Amino acid sequence: METILEVRNLSKTYASGFQALKSVNLSIRRGEMFALLGPNGAGKTTLINIVCGIVRASEGSVLADGLDIAKDYRRVRAAIGLVPQELHTDMFETVWDTVKFSRGLFGKPPNQEYLERVLSDLSLSDKKKSKIMTLSGGMKRRVLIAKALSHEPSILFLDEPTAGVDVELRRSMWEMVRKLRERGVTIILTTHYIEEAEEMADRVGVINKGELVLVEDKHVLMQRMGKKQLRVELKSPLAALPASLNGGRALTLEPDGKSLLYTYDTQSDDTGIPSLLADLGKSGIEIRDLSTQQSSLEEIFVSLVRSGS
Ligand SMILES: Nc1ncnc2c1ncn2[C@@H]1O[C@H](COP(=O)(O)OP(=O)(O)O)[C@@H](O)[C@H]1O
Ligand SMILES: [Mg+2]
Q1: How many whole angstroms from 45 Cα to the centroid of ligand 2?
Q2: Which ligand 1 atom sits closest to the C-alpha of 43?
Q3: Is the pLDDT at 268 greater than 90, yes or no?
């Protein structure tokens, strides 16, 4: 698949001496929706700000469409839309003026029809002439998205777009972002909501303490999530796993011999649980209790973030 954005060996040490990024390598594919997950302070905003030319990298390079941001800054930046994490925009301007001005800033000729469509997609048409200070928090956020889209970027960064946003607005933003993706815009979204990544992303990256610790197709992660474990507590401990039970199934005996652990796929038609229980009965093994546990993206995420600390 074609790469639209390439981050190579990117490191950032702030003037304070704090190292916020540690040699990050990442390729974003044209047209994908990529979710960058990480706890607060992981380096998500630093990474985005470097790509958008707001923060200077200490080491490494960024290529967008094959162009180096350090050498072709204006051209690269014109291809990128950024919805920043912080809500800062000129409160005294009207929605229309601020969006029109943003477009001009990136050297695009005026296009009233396009801007009207952006505002209507964001349900902001009737607020065109309103001053930004008079809008609700959710509307201000949508104005920021309109600004980011004003110059028709092919790559859109959304830095925690739904932090502190109510459930309804979150849903409608997801819907809108999906529409953009259908039009071919490459979308990179940072979030610390696992649910958002689950719902939206084609691929997921996990960043922790400045290190990219995982990049994975979402469906692959979902399959891992689909795995569940059945714990069978036994009435009397076993010295070893009986051969009669070990017919190619994912079954292990705990070191203390008191329980069996059986891993199965929740998405498969046959979990194998009925036949396991039948075989236990045939072998005369008595069960004391049964329990199941599921590994979720959340758990995978938490364990990655913990092991990195
Ligand atoms: N200008 C700065 N000077 C010094 N440290 C900074 C600066 N900006 C961010 N940091 C630190 O870098 C780390 C990563 O920050 P940030 O990229 O904002 O993380 P995230 O967006 O994942 O929450 C944090 O520990 C933060 O305190
Ligand atoms: Mg951030």
Answers
A1: 4
A2: 17
A3: no
